[in-house]
Amino acid sequence: MAALLEVENLRVDIPLGAGDLHAVRGISFHVDRGETLCIVGESGCGKSLTSLSLMGLLPPKAVRQADKLFFDGIDLTQASQGKMSDIRGNRMAMIFQEPMTSLNPAYTIGNQLEEALLRHQKVSGKEARERAIHLLEKVGITGAASRLGQYPHQLSGGLRQRVMIAMALMCGPELILADEPTTALDVTIQAQILHLMIELQKEFGMGMILITHDLGIVARVADRVAVMYAGQIVESGTVNEVFDNPMHPYTQGLLRCIPVPGKTRRGEPLGSIPGIVPSLIGKIEGCAFANRCRYTFQDCLTTDVPLAETSPGRGYRCLLSDQQCLENAKEVA
Ligand SMILES: Nc1ncnc2c1ncn2[C@@H]1O[C@H](COP(=O)(O)OP(=O)(O)O)[C@@H](O)[C@H]1O
Ligand SMILES: [Mg+2]
Known about the structure:
single chain, alpha/beta, Rossmann fold, 2 domains, eight-stranded mixed sheet, five-stranded antiparallel sheet, 13 strands, 32% helix, globular, binds adenosine-5'-diphosphate, binds magnesium ion
Protein backbone atom coordinates (compact mmCIF):
# COMPACT_ATOMS: atom_id res chain seq x y z
CA MET A 1 0.00 0.00 0.00
CA ALA A 2 1.23 3.49 -0.80
CA ALA A 3 2.42 5.65 2.07
CA LEU A 4 0.04 8.16 3.65
CA LEU A 5 2.43 10.98 2.77
CA GLU A 6 5.09 10.82 0.08
CA VAL A 7 7.55 13.65 -0.37
CA GLU A 8 10.23 13.72 -3.05
CA ASN A 9 12.76 16.47 -3.61
CA LEU A 10 10.84 19.14 -1.73
CA ARG A 11 12.30 22.63 -1.98
CA VAL A 12 11.27 25.90 -0.36
CA ASP A 13 12.87 29.15 -1.54
CA ILE A 14 12.32 32.64 -0.19
CA PRO A 15 13.42 35.50 -2.43
CA LEU A 16 15.14 38.18 -0.34
CA GLY A 17 16.94 41.40 -1.22
CA ALA A 18 20.29 39.67 -0.70
CA GLY A 19 19.39 36.71 -2.96
CA ASP A 20 17.27 33.57 -2.71
CA LEU A 21 17.14 31.90 0.68
CA HIS A 22 17.05 28.14 0.09
CA ALA A 23 15.36 27.10 3.32
CA VAL A 24 14.50 23.53 2.27
CA ARG A 25 16.96 22.09 -0.22
CA GLY A 26 15.56 18.94 -1.78
CA ILE A 27 14.30 16.62 0.93
CA SER A 28 12.53 13.28 0.49
CA PHE A 29 10.67 11.21 3.07
CA HIS A 30 7.44 9.36 3.66
CA VAL A 31 5.05 8.75 6.52
CA ASP A 32 3.02 5.55 6.84
CA ARG A 33 -0.35 5.31 8.54
CA GLY A 34 -0.02 4.97 12.28
CA GLU A 35 3.68 5.78 12.47
CA THR A 36 5.66 8.66 13.93
CA LEU A 37 8.42 10.29 11.94
CA CYS A 38 10.53 12.69 13.95
CA ILE A 39 12.29 15.51 12.14
CA VAL A 40 15.13 16.74 14.28
CA GLY A 41 17.72 19.48 13.92
CA GLU A 42 18.85 22.77 15.40
CA SER A 43 16.96 25.99 15.00
CA GLY A 44 17.05 27.46 11.49
CA CYS A 45 17.42 24.14 9.63
CA GLY A 46 14.12 24.42 7.74
CA LYS A 47 11.92 22.20 9.89
CA SER A 48 9.03 24.62 10.30
CA LEU A 49 9.01 25.65 6.65
CA THR A 50 8.94 21.95 5.73
CA SER A 51 5.77 21.37 7.75
CA LEU A 52 4.14 24.62 6.66
CA SER A 53 4.83 23.72 3.03
CA LEU A 54 3.05 20.38 3.46
CA MET A 55 0.00 22.18 4.84
CA GLY A 56 0.07 24.85 2.14
CA LEU A 57 0.62 27.52 4.78
CA LEU A 58 3.94 29.04 3.71
CA PRO A 59 4.51 32.78 4.05
CA PRO A 60 3.28 34.56 0.88
CA LYS A 61 6.71 35.13 -0.70
CA ALA A 62 7.93 31.57 -0.22
CA VAL A 63 7.97 29.27 -3.24
CA ARG A 64 7.39 25.55 -2.89
CA GLN A 65 8.52 23.00 -5.47
CA ALA A 66 8.52 19.21 -5.33
CA ASP A 67 8.93 16.26 -7.67
CA LYS A 68 6.29 14.49 -5.64
CA LEU A 69 3.99 15.62 -2.83
CA PHE A 70 1.26 13.05 -2.34
CA PHE A 71 -1.16 12.78 0.54
CA ASP A 72 -3.20 9.56 0.39
CA GLY A 73 -2.70 9.53 -3.37
CA ILE A 74 -3.72 13.20 -3.80
CA ASP A 75 -1.15 15.34 -5.58
CA LEU A 76 -0.87 18.36 -3.29
CA THR A 77 1.17 20.31 -5.84
CA GLN A 78 -1.93 20.32 -8.09
CA ALA A 79 -4.56 20.83 -5.39
CA SER A 80 -6.61 24.04 -5.61
CA GLN A 81 -6.90 26.43 -2.66
CA GLY A 82 -10.38 25.05 -1.99
CA LYS A 83 -9.20 21.44 -2.07
CA MET A 84 -6.27 22.32 0.20
CA SER A 85 -8.43 24.00 2.82
CA ASP A 86 -10.71 20.98 2.65
CA ILE A 87 -7.79 18.66 3.45
CA ARG A 88 -6.31 21.01 6.03
CA GLY A 89 -7.90 20.59 9.42
CA ASN A 90 -10.07 17.77 8.17
CA ARG A 91 -7.56 15.12 7.07
CA MET A 92 -4.25 16.77 7.97
CA ALA A 93 -3.95 18.89 11.10
CA MET A 94 -1.15 20.90 12.60
CA ILE A 95 -0.19 21.56 16.21
CA PHE A 96 2.02 24.61 16.68
CA GLN A 97 4.58 25.49 19.32
CA GLU A 98 2.64 28.45 20.60
CA PRO A 99 -1.08 27.72 21.05
CA MET A 100 -2.00 31.40 20.90
CA THR A 101 -1.04 31.44 17.22
CA SER A 102 -3.91 29.09 16.42
CA LEU A 103 -6.40 29.86 19.18
CA ASN A 104 -8.40 33.02 18.62
CA PRO A 105 -8.51 35.15 21.80
CA ALA A 106 -11.91 36.57 20.84
CA TYR A 107 -13.84 33.26 20.82
CA THR A 108 -14.58 30.69 23.48
CA ILE A 109 -12.87 27.31 23.50
CA GLY A 110 -16.18 25.61 22.71
CA ASN A 111 -16.83 27.89 19.80
CA GLN A 112 -13.45 27.18 18.24
CA LEU A 113 -13.54 23.43 18.79
CA GLU A 114 -17.04 23.11 17.35
CA GLU A 115 -16.28 25.41 14.44
CA ALA A 116 -13.31 23.23 13.45
CA LEU A 117 -15.71 20.33 12.91
CA LEU A 118 -18.73 22.23 11.54
CA ARG A 119 -16.56 23.84 8.86
CA HIS A 120 -15.54 20.47 7.43
CA GLN A 121 -18.19 17.92 8.19
CA LYS A 122 -21.98 17.67 8.05
CA VAL A 123 -22.80 17.36 11.73
CA SER A 124 -25.30 19.08 13.99
CA GLY A 125 -24.31 21.66 16.59
CA LYS A 126 -25.16 19.16 19.27
CA GLU A 127 -22.89 16.51 17.78
CA ALA A 128 -20.06 19.02 17.46
CA ARG A 129 -20.48 20.00 21.10
CA GLU A 130 -20.49 16.38 22.23
CA ARG A 131 -17.33 15.65 20.30
CA ALA A 132 -15.65 18.75 21.77
CA ILE A 133 -16.46 17.57 25.29
CA HIS A 134 -15.33 14.03 24.49
CA LEU A 135 -11.98 15.23 23.15
CA LEU A 136 -11.37 17.68 26.00
CA GLU A 137 -11.84 14.73 28.33
CA LYS A 138 -9.50 12.65 26.15
CA VAL A 139 -6.75 15.25 26.45
CA GLY A 140 -7.13 15.17 30.23
CA ILE A 141 -9.11 18.34 30.87
CA THR A 142 -11.43 18.01 33.84
CA GLY A 143 -14.84 19.64 33.91
CA ALA A 144 -14.80 19.66 30.11
CA ALA A 145 -18.38 20.87 29.62
CA SER A 146 -17.82 23.93 31.79
CA ARG A 147 -14.58 24.76 29.93
CA LEU A 148 -16.42 25.28 26.65
CA GLY A 149 -17.52 28.76 27.73
CA GLN A 150 -13.99 29.88 28.64
CA TYR A 151 -11.66 32.04 26.56
CA PRO A 152 -8.05 31.01 25.77
CA HIS A 153 -6.55 33.63 28.13
CA GLN A 154 -8.39 32.02 31.04
CA LEU A 155 -6.34 28.82 30.64
CA SER A 156 -2.74 28.02 31.57
CA GLY A 157 -0.20 27.36 28.82
CA GLY A 158 -0.41 23.60 29.42
CA LEU A 159 -4.21 23.61 29.18
CA ARG A 160 -4.14 25.73 26.03
CA GLN A 161 -1.80 23.21 24.44
CA ARG A 162 -4.20 20.42 25.37
CA VAL A 163 -7.08 22.37 23.83
CA MET A 164 -5.07 22.79 20.65
CA ILE A 165 -4.44 19.05 20.49
CA ALA A 166 -8.17 18.45 20.96
CA MET A 167 -8.88 20.96 18.20
CA ALA A 168 -6.48 19.20 15.84
CA LEU A 169 -8.31 15.92 16.54
CA MET A 170 -11.85 17.28 16.06
CA CYS A 171 -12.20 16.04 12.49
CA GLY A 172 -10.34 12.77 13.06
CA PRO A 173 -7.33 13.61 10.85
CA GLU A 174 -5.18 10.88 9.32
CA LEU A 175 -1.98 12.91 9.62
CA ILE A 176 -0.86 15.19 12.44
CA LEU A 177 1.99 17.64 12.01
CA ALA A 178 3.32 18.76 15.36
CA ASP A 179 5.95 21.50 15.24
CA GLU A 180 7.83 21.66 18.56
CA PRO A 181 4.47 21.21 20.33
CA THR A 182 5.87 21.25 23.85
CA THR A 183 8.83 23.61 23.65
CA ALA A 184 7.00 26.52 25.30
CA LEU A 185 5.92 24.41 28.29
CA ASP A 186 7.77 23.51 31.44
CA VAL A 187 9.46 20.14 31.63
CA THR A 188 6.93 18.11 33.63
CA ILE A 189 4.04 19.37 31.49
CA GLN A 190 6.10 18.64 28.34
CA ALA A 191 6.36 15.00 29.32
CA GLN A 192 2.62 14.72 30.04
CA ILE A 193 1.62 16.32 26.75
CA LEU A 194 3.99 14.18 24.69
CA HIS A 195 2.78 11.07 26.41
CA LEU A 196 -0.78 12.10 25.64
CA MET A 197 -0.02 12.77 21.98
CA ILE A 198 1.57 9.37 21.52
CA GLU A 199 -1.35 7.63 23.22
CA LEU A 200 -3.87 9.42 21.02
CA GLN A 201 -1.79 8.82 17.91
CA LYS A 202 -1.77 5.07 18.61
CA GLU A 203 -5.45 5.00 19.59
CA PHE A 204 -6.60 6.82 16.46
CA GLY A 205 -4.00 5.18 14.17
CA MET A 206 -2.81 8.51 12.82
CA GLY A 207 0.44 9.17 11.04
CA MET A 208 2.47 11.83 12.80
CA ILE A 209 5.34 14.10 11.95
CA LEU A 210 6.85 15.38 15.16
CA ILE A 211 9.32 18.20 14.78
CA THR A 212 11.72 18.79 17.63
CA HIS A 213 15.27 19.84 18.43
CA ASP A 214 15.27 17.47 21.40
CA LEU A 215 16.79 14.03 20.74
CA GLY A 216 15.61 12.88 24.17
CA ILE A 217 12.04 13.23 22.90
CA VAL A 218 12.90 11.47 19.64
CA ALA A 219 14.29 8.47 21.51
CA ARG A 220 11.02 8.08 23.37
CA VAL A 221 8.45 8.53 20.62
CA ALA A 222 9.84 8.05 17.10
CA ASP A 223 9.47 5.09 14.81
CA ARG A 224 11.74 6.69 12.23
CA VAL A 225 13.98 9.74 12.30
CA ALA A 226 15.09 12.31 9.74
CA VAL A 227 17.95 14.54 10.87
CA MET A 228 17.85 17.93 9.16
CA TYR A 229 20.74 20.29 8.73
CA ALA A 230 20.79 23.49 6.67
CA GLY A 231 17.69 22.56 4.69
CA GLN A 232 18.72 18.98 3.89
CA ILE A 233 18.13 15.59 5.45
CA VAL A 234 21.63 14.49 6.44
CA GLU A 235 20.65 11.18 8.02
CA SER A 236 17.56 9.00 8.18
CA GLY A 237 16.62 5.60 9.54
CA THR A 238 14.63 3.83 12.20
CA VAL A 239 15.06 5.24 15.67
CA ASN A 240 17.23 2.26 16.65
CA GLU A 241 19.44 2.53 13.58
CA VAL A 242 20.06 6.21 14.14
CA PHE A 243 20.63 6.01 17.89
CA ASP A 244 22.70 2.81 17.84
CA ASN A 245 24.84 3.76 14.87
CA PRO A 246 24.66 7.50 14.18
CA MET A 247 26.62 7.79 10.93
CA HIS A 248 26.64 11.51 10.20
CA PRO A 249 29.00 13.69 12.24
CA TYR A 250 26.10 16.11 12.81
CA THR A 251 23.90 13.38 14.31
CA GLN A 252 26.84 12.26 16.41
CA GLY A 253 27.29 15.85 17.59
CA LEU A 254 23.60 16.14 18.53
CA LEU A 255 23.76 12.87 20.44
CA ARG A 256 26.76 14.06 22.42
CA CYS A 257 24.57 16.96 23.58
CA ILE A 258 21.91 14.89 25.34
CA PRO A 259 22.31 13.94 28.97
CA VAL A 260 22.87 10.23 29.59
CA PRO A 261 21.15 8.89 32.73
CA GLY A 262 23.79 7.60 35.12
CA LYS A 263 26.64 9.09 33.12
CA THR A 264 26.02 12.81 32.94
CA ARG A 265 26.56 14.26 36.42
CA ARG A 266 24.11 16.74 37.87
CA GLY A 267 25.05 20.29 37.02
CA GLU A 268 27.61 19.19 34.43
CA PRO A 269 27.40 21.48 31.39
CA LEU A 270 25.98 19.73 28.34
CA GLY A 271 28.02 19.60 25.19
CA SER A 272 27.06 21.64 22.19
CA ILE A 273 28.28 21.61 18.62
CA PRO A 274 30.67 24.54 18.16
CA GLY A 275 29.85 26.97 15.34
CA ILE A 276 26.62 27.96 13.64
CA VAL A 277 24.36 26.86 10.79
CA PRO A 278 25.64 28.43 7.54
CA SER A 279 23.65 31.09 5.72
CA LEU A 280 21.04 29.52 3.49
CA ILE A 281 21.18 32.37 0.98
CA GLY A 282 22.67 31.34 -2.35
CA LYS A 283 24.42 28.07 -3.10
CA ILE A 284 26.26 26.18 -0.37
CA GLU A 285 29.58 24.89 -1.70
CA GLY A 286 30.46 21.33 -0.59
CA CYS A 287 29.07 19.85 2.63
CA ALA A 288 26.96 22.33 4.62
CA PHE A 289 28.33 20.93 7.89
CA ALA A 290 32.02 21.13 6.86
CA ASN A 291 32.76 24.32 8.82
CA ARG A 292 31.69 22.64 12.09
CA CYS A 293 32.74 19.05 11.52
CA ARG A 294 35.65 17.50 13.41
CA TYR A 295 36.44 15.18 10.47
CA THR A 296 36.48 17.70 7.60
CA PHE A 297 39.02 17.14 4.84
CA GLN A 298 39.68 19.02 1.61
CA ASP A 299 36.99 17.33 -0.56
CA CYS A 300 34.26 18.22 1.96
CA LEU A 301 34.69 21.89 1.09
CA THR A 302 34.20 21.46 -2.65
CA THR A 303 32.22 18.27 -3.33
CA ASP A 304 28.42 18.13 -3.23
CA VAL A 305 27.62 15.23 -0.94
CA PRO A 306 24.90 12.86 -2.19
CA LEU A 307 22.63 10.96 0.19
CA ALA A 308 24.05 7.43 0.31
CA GLU A 309 21.26 4.93 0.90
CA THR A 310 22.58 1.83 2.63
CA SER A 311 19.12 0.21 2.72
CA PRO A 312 15.59 1.48 1.96
CA GLY A 313 14.93 4.42 4.31
CA ARG A 314 18.41 4.27 5.83
CA GLY A 315 20.92 6.76 4.55
CA TYR A 316 23.30 9.57 5.33
CA ARG A 317 25.09 12.39 3.58
CA CYS A 318 28.83 12.22 4.29
CA LEU A 319 31.97 11.60 2.27
CA LEU A 320 33.53 9.41 4.95
CA SER A 321 33.33 5.65 4.37
CA ASP A 322 30.70 3.56 6.20
CA GLN A 323 33.56 1.97 8.11
CA GLN A 324 34.93 5.31 9.23
CA CYS A 325 31.46 6.56 10.27
CA LEU A 326 30.87 3.41 12.32
CA GLU A 327 34.23 3.90 14.03
CA ASN A 328 33.33 7.51 14.83
CA ALA A 329 29.89 6.44 16.11
CA LYS A 330 31.60 4.32 18.79
CA GLU A 331 33.03 7.50 20.31
CA VAL A 332 29.50 8.77 20.95
CA ALA A 333 28.28 5.69 22.78
N1 LIG B 1 9.05 34.30 6.63
C1 LIG B 1 10.36 34.17 6.45
N2 LIG B 1 11.07 35.09 5.74
C2 LIG B 1 12.41 34.96 5.55
N3 LIG B 1 13.13 33.92 6.02
C3 LIG B 1 12.49 32.97 6.73
C4 LIG B 1 11.08 33.06 6.99
N4 LIG B 1 10.73 31.96 7.75
C5 LIG B 1 11.87 31.26 7.94
N5 LIG B 1 12.93 31.86 7.33
C6 LIG B 1 14.32 31.37 7.31
O1 LIG B 1 14.31 30.06 6.75
C7 LIG B 1 15.23 29.21 7.42
C8 LIG B 1 14.51 28.00 7.98
O2 LIG B 1 13.57 28.42 8.95
P1 LIG B 1 12.63 27.43 9.78
O3 LIG B 1 11.96 26.50 8.84
O4 LIG B 1 11.78 28.28 10.63
O5 LIG B 1 13.70 26.63 10.67
P2 LIG B 1 13.48 25.71 11.95
O6 LIG B 1 12.02 25.46 12.11
O7 LIG B 1 14.29 24.48 11.67
O8 LIG B 1 14.04 26.47 13.10
C9 LIG B 1 15.89 30.09 8.50
O9 LIG B 1 17.10 30.58 7.96
C10 LIG B 1 14.90 31.21 8.69
O10 LIG B 1 15.55 32.37 9.12
MG1 LIG C 1 10.79 25.89 13.76
